[in-house]
Specification:
seven-stranded mixed beta sheet; alpha/beta
């Protein structure tokens, strides 16, 4: 998992509440077992018409949002089913962070496992970001995970909360497997004492 320390990126806004995982990645695209290859299907039913042509009015299809790595939405982002593919499609599309007023619990937890930083900010702060995007083409945000700070070039400076363990994992790029591998010496010793072969041996 790629570490997340400091990131500065173009902001795309999705002025919607209750964005559910069935819209983030529709069920017909859940056949892959890898974490990659889902980006092209992100928000498929919103991005494309019945002829699979891009819908120009959908937010992410606007030229000014091409290459965005930070997505900003309203409340209850990631509601619906528990599919991890929703996070995978966002990261595969190029997003490193989603900022919203609130998140669905399962989506929020899944995000950390794949290196996507979910940041909850108060509605008034989210609105300031929306306003800044509309007034400033190419608007960017700077995200400092260590300092837990969101800032821009126009005076915005907002702190956010994050669980210390999750912060540690993101800063060091540790997913669940890598966290387990940090304990490989203890696991090997445990297996030795129980008469098992050491980890990695045949």
């Amino acid at each position: 998992m790629n570490p997340f320390t400091v990131h500065r990126g173009l902001v795309a806004t999705l002025d919607r509440s209750n964005v559910d995982t069935d819209q983030i990645i529709p069920k017909q695209f859940l056949k892959r077992i890898e974490r990659t290859g889902f980006g092209e299907f992100l928000f498929f039913d919103w991005r494309f018409d019945s002829n699979k042509q891009l819908i120009p009015t959908f937010e992410l299809n606007k030229p000014e949002f091409h290459g965005a790595s930070i997505l900003v939405a309203r409340r209850n982002f990631g509601s619906g089913s528990s599919r991890e593919h929703a996070v995978w499609s966002l990261t595969d599309y190029g997003f490193r962070c989603v900022i919203a007023e609130s998140f669905a619990d399962i989506f929020y937890n899944n995000s950390f496992k794949s290196g996507l930083l979910p940041i909850e900010l108060p509605p008034v702060t989210v609105q300031k970001i929306f306003d800044s995007v509309s007034r400033n083409p190419g608007y960017q945000l700077a995200l400092d995970l260590d300092r837990q700070l969101v800032s821009d070039d126009f005076g915005l400076s907002a702190t956010f909360q994050i669980d210390p363990h999750r912060k540690h994992c993101l800063l060091h790029g540790l997913d669940d497997i890598e966290l387990t591998l940090e304990q490989v010496d203890k696991i090997t010793e445990f297996e030795r004492l129980r008469g098992y072969s050491p980890v990695g041996s045949t």
